[in-house]
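Final report, Chapter 2: Outcomes

The project's central promise was a pipeline that accepts a single protein chain and returns its three-dimensional structure in a standardized token representation, suitable for archiving and comparison. That pipeline is now operational. To close this chapter, we reproduce one record exactly as it appears in the project archive, with the input sequence first and the structure output second.
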Amino acid sequence: MMVACMDNTTDETEPGEVGPGEAQPEKMGFVAVQWAIEDKTDASQCKAYGANAVELMLINTENNHVTRQVVPCERFDASIHVTADDYVGTITLIDENGRPVSEPLPLGPFEVSGAETTTRRISFPAAEGQGDTEGQRDRQRPRDRHRR
């Protein structure tokens, strides 16, 4: 003989619903940050800066909560799980001791939703002494061709 038990209570909540007296869970979302140096994603670019990693700082503009993440420079991509809200932020190339080797570049303002990933793309300029040699020629002292 087989006996089946059924629970006919009606106070169950559907997934994503909040029951009476329960706190609303925070919606979470992802920020994908993709960086390059001179529009290139080559590890040699990190070495030219002396950069070991990047420091990502995301600031929630609603409550000023700061999320900091350090990621290897040569990865050129990071995904950060944060509360869905409005943000500003910066990305900075740092050395092996955590000291900045670049100026911080802005990542925002931007909005993170729980529905889709927010993507931010940024490119650092060439490291000093690298890149455009045209600018170096302009800094040289002009020669006087009319010597007597």
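Archive annotation: The chain is about 10% helix and 35% strand.
This record, like all others produced under the grant, will remain available to the consortium after the project formally closes.
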